[in-house]
Each structure stands twice: as C-alpha cells, then as structure tokens.
Amino acid sequence: MQAGGVSDIIAHFAGHLHIPADEIRLREALEDPARLPRIQPWMPGPSPEANPDRPLDELPSQPYRAPSPSADDTFPHFGKLPHPDIPAPAPHLPQQPQAPLPPPLPTYGGGGGGAGHAAHDFSIEVSPDQGLVQVLQLNELHDDDVLLMVPGTHPEALHTIDAASTLDAMMRLAAGGTPADLALYGRSTQNAVDLVDAHAASIRASPDAASPDSGTLGLGTYVDGLHQADGTKVDFTVPTLQAPDEASHDGLVDQGLAARTGGNLSINIATIFDDHTEHGALLVQGNAYSTDLISQTNVLVSQSVIEAAGDALTRSIVTDGNTTHNAASIAEHPTGTAIVQHLSLGTHVAVDRIDGDFYDVRMLTQANLLSDHDVTVQASFGAYYVVGTGDNTQINELPVSALNGRYDLIVVQGDHHTANLIFQTNVLLNDTVVDAYTARSDTASQSIVTGDNALSNAAAINHYGTKDFQEIGTTLGSAVDHLAQGHVDPALAALLPPAYGDTLNVLFITGDFYNINAISQTNIVSNVDTVIQYSPNPGTQLAATGAHTTSTQSVNSGDNQLSNLAAITTVGTTSTAQFVGGTHYDDAMLFQTNIVSDSSRVTIGDTQTLAHEVVAFTGLAAPAIAVDHPSPPAVTVDTAFHQDLFHGMLS
C-alpha cells in the first residue's frame, strides 16, 4: 500500500447462464472504472467524456470477501446487520453457483497502526486508512424457450408490441424517477464522488443557500409517498417463490394441460455498516455537507390478450392484482457523550496527516437482467401435460462492513462531505398472449393468470452520532492553525470527554474529506409469453379402466416478483463536539415513483375463430362444431389502467 494513499478494493461477482458478450465475463485484469463496458442497452452507460486522469490513486485491486461485524458491548444493537434487520433469502431458494473466493481479508478499515510512538510529545504518521470499495454484482439470464408442434409456425407473431423498444422506453421512464442532477451516472467510486461534488456546488449556487436547512425532508418512514406514524418500520421481508403444485395427477382419469411461464424472482439485498471514520470530535474549517438520498422507482407494463372457448364448468381469468410499493426510512440517533469514551490529551499526541483529500467511499452496484420470452404450444388427451418455462431466480446479496474507527479527533481544513445514497429500480414488462380452447365435454375448469406481479423497494438509512454543528470560534481556529504547523494547542483536549489513556489520536486533513456510502440496485425483467392450448375431444368420457375422466386447462404467466432491499447504517461524531468554520448544509431527499400501465383484452366464446387458430398451431384435426347448435355470442372485455404516479417527489 502506498503511504498516505488510497487502498482501492474492487470485487466483481457475476452469475451467468447465457453470456452473449465476452466483456461481461470475470476478468483477471482490472478494467478502467471510468470506461466500463456497456453491459446491456437497458443499463445506463458511462459518461461519454470519461476523464482517465482521475485524481484518485490507481492501485492494484484484489478480491474482497466482506466480513460481518461481531457484536460489541458498546453497540450491542449493531450485532446484526443492517438496522433494521434484512433477513437472508429463504433456504429453499436456489442459489447461484459462484467460483470460490480467496480466504477472507482482515476487516476493512482496521486500525493498522495509527502512529509511531516516539519519545517526544508529537509524532506524525502518514498511513491512515483511506479506502475505495467498489463492488459489482451482475446476473444476466436469457431463458427464451420455444415449444412448437408444427415447425415453421410463429405464434409469437400474435404480439402487438415490440419488446425491445418498449423496454427501452420503460428504462427512460425509470431514469426520470430521479432528477438528472441527482442521478448516479456510472458504477465507480469516482462517479459517487462526482455526484457529491456536483450536489455541493448546486447547493452553494442555489438561492436557498442562505438557509441551509430549509426544505429538507422530515425524518421518518414513508410508504408510497405517505408519511407513516412514528415508530413504523420498513418491511424488509424477502419475497419467496410460489410453492409448486406437488399434487399428483393420474393421467388416465385426471387429464389436462398446464403451462407456467411466469413466476420469476429477482432480488437484490445490500447492507453497509460504516463505523470506519467514527470519532469523538470534528473540526471543519470549510463547509460541511450532509446528504441522505433515497430514490425508488417501479415501472410496470402488463399487457394481456386472452382468447378462451369451449365448455368449461368454471373459468377463472386473472389479469389484475399487480402491485408496486416503495418504502423508505431516514432516521437519526443522537449519541451525545454517553455511548463511547475516547482518549483525551495526556502525554502524547499521535497525528495522521494527509496532504490533500481524504477518501472513504463504498460503491455497491447490483443488477439482475432477465429475458424470459417463452412460446409454448400444447395439445393432448389421455394424459396430464405440464410445461414449465418460468420460475427463474436471480439473487444478489452482499453485506459490507467498514469497522474500527480509531480517531479521537478529525480536523479538516477543506470541506467535509458525508453522503448516504440508495438508488433502487424495478422494471417489468409482462406481455402475454393466450389462446385456450377445449373441445372436451368433461372439462372441469379453465384457469388463466397473467397478473399478480409484485414490484417492491425497501430502504433505510440510520445515522448514529451528532448531526448539528457549532461555530468553530477564534480559539479553536487558532488551535487548528497551530496543528497545521506541528504544534498542539491544549484547547483541543477540551473537545473530548474525560477518558482513560494517554494518547490523543488525530487525523489532520489539509484538503477535503469524503465519507460516501452508495448502493445502486436494479432489476429488469422482460417476460413475454405466448401460450397455445388445445384439448381435442377424445370421443369418450371413460378411461381405459372404465372410470369417468375430467379435464383441466391452466396457464400462469404472472406471479413475477422484483424486489430491492438496502440499508445503510453509519456512525459519525459520538459527542457534541462538532464544529464548522463555514456553513453546514444538511439535506435529506426521497423520491418514490410508481409508473404502471395495465391493459388486457379478454374474449370468451369465439369458438369458430379460436378453433381454427389453435388447429393451425397444433396441426391436429379441427373440432366438429354443430351448425344447428351455434355457440353463444362471443364476449370481449377490454380493460386499460394507466398510472403515472410520481409518489412523494419530496426534497
């Protein structure tokens, strides 16, 4: 590690069942984070004018296994991460196979020897722990299945929308959920720093700069833009797959057709516990910027075209039941001076001096990309015929902990930036065409489900420590100037509570200070299904055993679930000794967006048209339709529900 430099830790986790592009594969060489490849047209690309001359140090990277923090007597409620707890996925969920990682590294941000203990009263150590942690977890799956009975037919031509262009438009809508000046462009730690710098500049230039605390979001919990009662907690329940139908079917008497093309599950789970720069007192000669930002967006397009006909005792068609929800909380937990006792000025002062900027940045990116375009054609009698082309599962899960803050006092001559950023996006295109026809007189039921899709985001930011700043004053200002010249002013000791020990650990930064935690989570699912089912008349209602037969038809292309869960917990100044020479700007912003387009066209009883259509795709003989007993008039129901709800555009 370069003395006084930045340790750059980058970990890539990728699970791929189908990888069309080589650049997505795990590479041994480190890719330039300013020029990362464009993973998918659905995903935002890097800035068109990426600057390769970044001010951050470029050091070799290494795989990193994030450890979980152990319970501590000082913070017993931090024994588990996050706050509040996010449960792990249910044990029965399939896990993606991953290549074995190297042995775990020591806990990130460990003390690492703060100062050399010289015989005199003042020492300088130039190897404090900075860190750039950059993690990308990506799952990309193409599960496009085709099951035909007549080669050369194209049932997918029944769809009326172009999936690629529709998905591209949906991604543009999703991007609009976050104001352009607050969006995170890219997946690198440098992108996070650039966003924080740009936001600080816009605050200084805004007319409200004279009132730094005006217009900030009220703390608490919000669900779909509505402030909840005090004490309401965010629900971090992890979705699970619907239990499969394990009932046995005797194909001789219990006959039918079943197709399940939906039931996809995409989940991102990320937590950050940041205790790395926890300290007893803070002196900032410039401005102090504290920013909490949560942006949550759900975009759902559900379109169904269903035609069903035939004699069925019961018929159930579900095209609704889709849900989109956003839940978020931002909370502050003042610690005062009672939680942590720090060292005060005694016979020795240990100073870590950084000439320039100090970076403590974590950037976690998780993405699930799923293409599940299925075409299934079924026709059978004398059996129970099941087709399953859905039920795909993608899960990203990562806890990151930065522990062992070791400074009693942090002094910043420039500006002090702390930011906790969470971006969550779900995009689901669910386009279904179903033709279901039965010519059997023993059909008991037809069941078609294209709805019941669920999109959800849950996020929480919890800050422990003092958020308020006091004016630095003349006395402390002089003490900082003396410290810059290598002299320790006794006034610094008055900042800290009485404690044991004889060493005051000080981090002295001549430039700006950046403590940034950022999580970006994205689920993109394109579920475009075409299902043709034809149950021909077997000519008898008796099985070979002489028992009466029953027949059923069922189609399920819905029940897709997309979920993002994220939590950031930070510990800052654990006493009230927090001073600023310039201005303190404190803002919390929440953006919760649900955009839903739900439309369906259901036609029941158009026997003539549907019978000839299913015959063309199955190649079986057309059913005999008595002319003197015409079918009842066909009934077509069109429903359309369009929603453009930018819930809680709060700032």
Architecture overview:
- The chain is mainly beta and 651 residues long.
- It has one domain.
- The chain contains four helices and 29 strands.
- The strands form four sheets. Strands 1, 3, 4, 10, 14, 18, 23, 27, 28 and 29 form a ten-stranded mixed sheet that branches.
- Strand 5 and strand 6 form a beta hairpin.
- The N terminus and C terminus are likely disordered.
Number of strands: 29
Q: Calculate the mean pLDDT score and round it.
A: 76
Secondary-structure content class: mainly beta
**Total DSSP helices:** 4
Radius of gyration: 30 Å
Low-confidence stretches: 1-84, 91-127, 337-347, 642-651
Task: Record keyword descriptors for this entry.
4 helices, 10-stranded mixed β-sheet, mainly beta, disordered C terminus, single chain, 651 residues, 29 strands
Topology (SSEs and partners):
Layout: E1 7-16, E2 122-125, E3 131-142, E4 146-147, H1 163-175, H2 189-205, E5 220-223, E6 226-227, E7 254-260, E8 265-274, E9 279-284, E10 288-309, E11 314-318, E12 323-333, E13 348-354, E14 358-379, E15 384-388, E16 393-402, E17 407-412, E18 416-438, E19 443-449, E20 454-464, E21 470-471, H3 473-484, E22 503-509, E23 513-535, E24 550-556, E25 561-571, E26 578-580, E27 584-604, H4 607-618, E28 635-645, E29 649-650
Parallel strand pairs: 1-3, 2-13, 3-14, 4-14, 7-15, 7-24, 8-16, 8-25, 9-17, 9-26, 10-18, 10-27, 11-19, 12-20, 13-22, 14-23, 17-22, 18-23, 19-24, 20-25, 21-26
Antiparallel strand pairs: 5-6, 5-12, 27-28, 27-29
